[in-house]
Amino acid sequence: MDELRRKLLQGAAAGAVTGASSFIPMFSAVAQTATATGTSVIVIGAGVAGLAAARRLTREGFAVTVLEGRNRIGGRVWTDVTDGVPMDVGAGWIHGPDGGNPIATLAAEAKARTFITNDDSITVTGVSGNEVTESTFGAGRKKFEASLAAVATRMKRAIPDESLATALGIVDPTVLTDPLSLFHLSYDLEFDSGGWLETLSARNYSDDSKYPGKDVILPNGYKAIPELLAKGIDIRLNTQVTAISHSDTGVVVTAGGMTFNSDYCIETLPLGVHKANRVRISPPLSAEKKASINVLGMGQINKVFMIFDKAFWPTDTQYFGWQSPVRGQFNYFMNYRTFSDFNCLVTFGLGQQGAYLESLNEAQLIQEITPVLRTVFGSSATAPRRAIRTGWNSDPFSLGAYSFAAVNSSSQDHVTLAKPSGSRLLHAGEHTHELYRATVHGAFLTGEREARRIIAARSNGTNRPKRR
Ligand SMILES: Cc1cc2nc3c(=O)[nH]c(=O)nc-3n(C[C@H](O)[C@H](O)[C@H](O)COP(=O)(O)OP(=O)(O)OC[C@H]3O[C@@H](n4cnc5c(N)ncnc54)[C@H](O)[C@@H]3O)c2cc1C
Known about the structure:
- By secondary structure, this protein is α/β, with parallel strands linked by helices.
- The protein has 2 domains: about 1-75 and about 220-295 and about 405-460, FAD/NAD(P)-binding domain, CATH 3.50.50.60; about 80-100 and about 110-120 and about 300-390, Alpha-Beta Complex (Polyamine Oxidase, Chain A, domain 2), CATH 3.90.660.10.
- The protein is about 30% helix and about 20% strand.
- It has 12 helices and 23 strands.
- A 7-stranded mixed β-sheet has the order 8-7-18-19-20-17-21, sandwiched between helices.
- α3 packs across α5 (about 180-195).
- The longest helix is centred in the N-terminal third of the chain and has 22 residues, at about 135-155.
- It starts with about 40 loop residues before the first strand and ends in a 9-residue tail after the last helix.
- It binds flavin-adenine dinucleotide.
- Flavin-adenine dinucleotide binds next to α1 and α12.
C-alpha cells in the first residue's frame, strides 16, 4: 500500500512538490513570505479537502503551504499501478456526477476518461454457488427495503437511538438471518455508509444527501483529480504534523522537526486521526468538538484487487454478488473488463470484515479467496496472480476509511466539527460536511468552504472568520 510507505525527511529536502520553500526552522518567529495579500495560510493534509482549500487561496494571492505526512498527495484518493493496472485504493466512484457535483466538473477539466457503471448489470450467486434468479433477488430486495422502512417508522417515535442491528432485530428479525437480506444490508448499506449494522445509528444512518445521476468511475485513475488540484501549489511531502498552537494573532505548526508560522491554518486531518489524538492542538479543541469526534464512527472498508492472467468470468457483466456466509466478506466483485482490457476483479471487506482483511498477507488472502472464486464462478476459476489489499484502518494517516453516523450521532456533529476554533484555526475534511460526508465531493466542498471563510475575513477587514 502506497499510504503505508512514509518516511519523515527533514529540512529543505523534505519534498516540496512545487513552488519556493517557505518553511521556517524550529523556534523561528519569522513570518512567511509576504504576498499580494500579506496573509499566510498553512493547510494540513494534501487530500482533496486540503488541495481544494489551497488551490482557492493560492488563486486569491494568499501565501499557502501544504504540509502532508505521506510521500504522496491525494490522501484517500489515490491510484496505485501494479502490473500496469490502475487501482483506485481509496475512492473509486464519482457518486451522482450530475446536478453540479464539483468532482464531475474537475474530471472534465482534467480531461479524465469517465465510465458510467451499470448497477443493474449484476448476477448474484447463493451461498453454495447456486444461481439466484432475478425474481428471488428482487423479492429479497423488497424485504430489505421493507425492513428499513419499518425501522424508519420505529425511530420516529420518541425513543433513544439504537443500532440498526438492534432495530432490525425488533422490526423483522428474519432479515438478520436471511442470506439475501444480509447481502443487501451489507453491500448496499454497510458499503455505502461505511459503518456496520451493530454500530450504525438506526435514526440517522442515512441522514446525508446525494447528487443525482448514475455513478461513474475514472478508468485511468481517480488520482487525476488531486493531481489537477495540486498544480502550482507549494506542498511539503513527508512532513508529518505533530502539534498545532493557535492564538488570536496566528498559528504555529510543528512538523517534521520544524515549526511553520502562519496567519491562519486549515487542518484536514481525517476523523480517525482526531479520534486517536495524533496531533496535539493547543488550546485544545472545544468539549463540543471532542464529543462529536468521539460519537461519530470511522468506517473500516478495504478493497482487494485481484489480477489474473485470463478472465474466467463473463466479461460484460459489471458486478457479481455472492451471499457470503460471513457478512461483508468478499460478497461483491467489480469487473474491470467492462471498462478496460485488464483481467482484474475488485472485491471488498465491508463493515467489520474490513478490519479482518488487514490481518491477512497476500498469500493468506489468495488462499482464502480462491475457493470463493470457485464457488462464485465455477471450476474454471483460477487463483489470482496477485491479490493486493488496502490497509486504511492501520494507516496512521487515515486510521479508517470514512466517517459514518454511529449510534447517538447526527448530522449536527458534522456541523460542530466544521466550526472554526478561535479566529485562526479552521477545520475541513469529509467528516465536516453536514450533507456529503464520506465522499470526495464532500471533502472538496469543505476545503472550498474554509478557503472562502478566510477570504471573507480578509474582505470584511476583521481577519476573524465567521462561524457559519
Ligand atoms: C476504501 C475507500 C473507498 C472510498 N470510496 C469512495 C467513493 O467511491 N466515492 C467517494 O466519493 N468517496 C469515497 N471514499 C471517501 C473519500 O475517499 C474521502 O471522503 C475523501 O477522499 C476524504 O478527503 P479528505 O481530504 O477529507 O481526507 P484525506 O484524503 O484523508 O486527506 C487528509 C490528508 O491529511 C494527511 N495527514 C494525516 N495526518 C497527517 C499529519 N499528522 N500530518 C500531515 N498530514 C497528515 C493524510 O496523509 C491525507 O493526505 C472512499 C474512501 C475509502 C478509504
